[in-house]
Write a structure and sequence with these properties.
40% of the residues lie in helices and 12% in strands. It is built from 15 helices and eleven strands. This is Amidase.
């Protein structure tokens, strides 16, 4: 049973009416965090600190103090964020024994300053390097949206997604390098917001790819994502709410619609029809530049190159302690020369300029967040071939907008008994506020 089902605003309204207390919310979340449904979701819990934050906020409210939106509410943090006095493990075992962090990472420090009740660190793909969410060291959190089949939680922010889906947290702090917020959001029926990378400092987070890593979160609504983003970035986006009617949406016909499973194709077509009926203009565009990404991103790939730079010493010291699938991907960057790396960066810069020009007349680009339903865990654990095939499909659409250095939302687009699916709403670098207005309008039109 899901604990918290309301949005942050709805919870705060109930708190203001004194129907509930933050202490009770956090106590229940901590209790359920140790239950069967939450197995492998957390790598560490902070019961004393979380309860103290909740009680402090309750006491402040009782004294008539006006509180920030997240004050005393349960929030989870991904295992790659530094916490003072702890070694950052990042879903691995190879980091054991490394120096502890002297201070909190910027993201964690800002959540603490907001009064958030940080209930624990969440499990993740080792070193954030997969969109699947499987972890052989700490176990794999099970996606709770299907009670009959154990399906993947999506990655790499796997535990973050499950913590919010189970209602143990109002927000899951994660990261997004190639889709690691939007993929878990899509497979859990949540909202994920990958902001422009430069919006939130990466300081204190164990990196995968410094060119792509983005500090961001997933929640139950677009507005909740904006509330959390304001804390993480230190500046609320100036979002002007707009009606959907008259908005122009581009739907690329290259790559992002390939290999869609029938259920996803059906949901995506239905979603476009709903938006069109509400007055949006849907325009199919080629955006053939999307087909260039594999060539520009070779050899090795931007993430493997930069991940190898970060983790080469760990690999040399204890490669046998790595998830072999993660080590295999990191090693793709081992033989790339400086000349090839610079050529990749130059090629990406040129590509970004051309794509920005191609989509500049549209309010947003729409496509499925992922083209498949969440696969079963067992099938991907059993076969490297099945794992890498699924991983490629999971990351394909989302990564395009990381490569663009853009901003992107995933909002739910499933109905009734359908398994969760996401609609991805994306734009260019720095367009976060305008894109947020689009996401709010889309969410409202879809009845979320």
């Amino acid at each position: 049973m899901t604990h918290i089902t309301e949005t942050i605003d709805q919870l705060n309204a109930r708190l203001a009416r004194r129907e509930i207390t933050r202490e009770a919310l956090v106590a229940k979340a901590l209790e359920e965090a140790t239950g069967k449904a939450a197995k492998s979701v957390f790598t560490k819990l902070y019961p004393e600190a979380a309860m103290a934050a909740a009680r402090s906020a309750d006491a402040a409210q009782a004294a008539g103090v006006s509180l920030p939106a997240l004050a005393g509410l349960p929030v989870s943090i991904k295992d790659l964020y530094g916490v003072a006095g702890e070694t950052t493990m990042s879903g691995s075992i190879v980091c054991e024994g490394e120096p502890v962090q002297p201070v909190d990472s910027v993201a964690v420090a800002r959540l603490r300053a907001s009064g958030s009740a940080i209930i624990g660190k969440t499990n993740m793909t080792e070193f954030a390097f997969s969109g699947v969410g499987i972890n052989p060291h700490y176990g794999t959190p099970v996606n709770p949206t299907d009670t009959k089949v154990a399906r993947i939680p999506g990655g790499s922010s796997s535990g973050a997604g499950v913590s919010v889906a189970l209602g143990l947290a109002v927000a899951g702090l994660g990261s997004d390098t190639g889709g690691s917020i939007r993929i878990p959001a899509a497979v859990h029926g949540l909202v994920g917001f990958k902001s422009t990378q430069s919006r939130v400092p990466l300081t204190g987070a164990l990196e995968l790819s410094r060119s792509l890593d983005t500090v961001c979160a997933m929640t139950r609504s677009v507005q909740d994502c904006l509330t959390v983003d304001a804390v993480l970035s230190g500046a609320m986006l100036r979002v002007r709410r707009r009606p959907l009617a008259g908005m122009r949406f581009a739907v690329p016909q290259t790559v992002v619609l390939d290999a869609m499973e029938p259920a996803v194709a059906k949901a995506f077509a239905r979603t476009l029809s709903t938006l069109s009926a509400a007055g949006a203009l849907i325009v199919d565009i080629p955006l053939a530049e999307l087909a260039e990404i594999p060539k520009i991103n070779a050899p090795g790939g931007l993430s493997p190159i930069e991940a190898y730079a970060e983790h080469h010493a760990r690999l040399a010291k204890a490669s046998d302690k790595f998830d072999h699938r993660v080590a295999q991907r990191i090693m793709l960057g081992s033989s790339v020369t400086a000349q090839q790396y610079i050529a990749l960066l130059d090629g990406r810069r040129d590509w970004i300029a051309r794509v920005e020009k191609a989509i500049e007349s549209y309010d947003a680009v729409l496509c499925p967040t992922i083209p498949i339903i969440a696969p079963e865990i067992a099938a991907l654990e059993a076969s490297d071939e099945a794992f890498f095939k699924a991983n490629g499909l999971l990351l394909r659409n989302t990564f395009a907008f990381n490569f663009l250095d853009g901003c992107s939302f995933s909002v739910p687009c499933h109905q009734g008994d359908e398994l969760p699916m996401g609609l991805m709403i994306s734009s260019v670098n720095g367009d976060d506020a305008r894109l947020a207005s689009v996401a709010l309008a889309v969410e409202s039109t879809l009845g979320r």
